[in-house]
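OP here, attaching both records as promised.
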Amino acid sequence: MENHYVQKKFGSKSSAEKWSFAGVYNPDINAGMPCYGDKHFRKKYVLEGVPVASAVGQTVLDLGCASGAFFPELINKGYEVTGVDSVPVMIEQANKLCKELEITVSLKLEDCAKLSFQDSSFDVCIAVGLIEHQMEDLTTLREVRRILKDDGTLVITIRNFLCPYVRFDQLQGVIYRARKNFISFLTRKEITKKKLSHGREHLPAEFKRRLRATGFEVTGQRYSHFYLFPPPLDRFFPDVHARLGKKMEILSSTKLGWLGSTCIFYARAVPHSR
């Protein structure tokens, strides 16, 4: 099923460029202490969960590949890379990146929850910033398990419901919508409502159960994207906010990791015979 929210959010050239190799994944985005490229840390942790290819011809699927920011590192790990996205402009950006870097990647425009690949086609799958934009979890997770080989690797990210920053962000959205509705009631004019949601959120423990229910064994878990000041205070102290967030990445694999807004799961595809 096509997700119109994804099309609306990422379907423009400007949105695609924001998520490009030179956008939020710019390698220099953390230059200087006040700079905090949170997506850079997420990318680093995701790639740490992808093993180096142990043989020629091993394959990796970047599901929801966007503009292809993970492609170079996946190729450097020795894999034949396939990228899938449901938004045409993202595939265009990914193709542009491949030409600029002179790398070979198989790109496909497909529904990420209904893939055309045969069973057991891939050794590894990464799904970064994807599941929160799907209508639900189980269909996509079952499809990923289908296309992964037995003992294959899955690295997948979710938006962490437990993160205090996320909770304040959602509260701010509720207040924003209530204010707009009140103004609309007083003026009798319909006000265009801005979609504030970044996608669905998950409880890590619940998502872990869903991974297990769809044929995965969770082998690791860590967090990223740390923010100390709740909205709207983060806007008043951006440098301090960035400085502290960058330092808080040391909590990534600790018991306080749940303070981060992103949770990363490392999982193994359990053979069906077991």
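Record two, same layout:
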Amino acid sequence: MSSLKISQIETKLVPGPVVYSVLYPDNYEESTQKYPLILFLHGGGDNHTILNKIKPIVEELWKRKMLLDAIIVSPSCTRSLYMDYQNGTEQWESFLIREFIPYLISKLPLDRERIIMSGISMGGLGSLRLGFKYPNLFDAIVAFEPAIEPAIEWKDVEPEDKYYRSSDFFEKIFGKPFDVNYWNINNPMYILKENSANIKKSGIKIYLEAGTEDFFGLYRGAEFLHQLLCDQNIKHEYRVVYGADHIGPSLEERFFNGFSFLNRIYNPPDTDPKHLAFRAMMKKEKEKYLKNSDYNG
């Protein structure tokens, strides 16, 4: 049986200690293998107990062999946006990258080549920012309904995409007066635009989704990011879930789909030799056609 444990880590970068939950797979105690790490970031107003909610879904996926055995960790990070605050009072990004992940690597039997950044809502935002900033650290990003705005720069953010965050909240994180440039350089869209070559070269796998009825309108940001990824020719999987809201019963199936994405990238379902041979043949035919054809449209 899987097991869920709670621990904490001391730090001076943020108000501490930081409490975190760890979900271990079946037979962990008897195993000698190294496990992938799935770092799951909670949404605004939530905390490390998010793992209690997704534990039954993960266990069912493990039971069906639809998710690789992994150690899943969720730290309590308040409503921080997983940011280093502009005034330096709280440094959540630095905590996660410089302290927490290295600490987990030192304490747990982890496969350093398979560290996966994931999260929901605010955590989806955090997973995208950190994944795009440090693409060589993470092997995959799984972002559920990320709380991102459909804009590259702050000047293009519409009122309907920022109404649910007060000016006091923005100023707490991005400075008072509000530092527009600091917001820009920490916006996943801006980071993707500036760091697209490194992101593409890293081969990081990306899963992105949102519901059509999300009451925060987060499907707008997800669609914008999807188009930006397409423009940069960066492979990813994008799902817009018909009828799904920001909360509610749709999340169970959506978690199921998002986590099973990891199984698809690490255990590709299509390994039929005949099909793979046919794909290789068609690739050669295409290359031959493009090389020799004088057809211009």
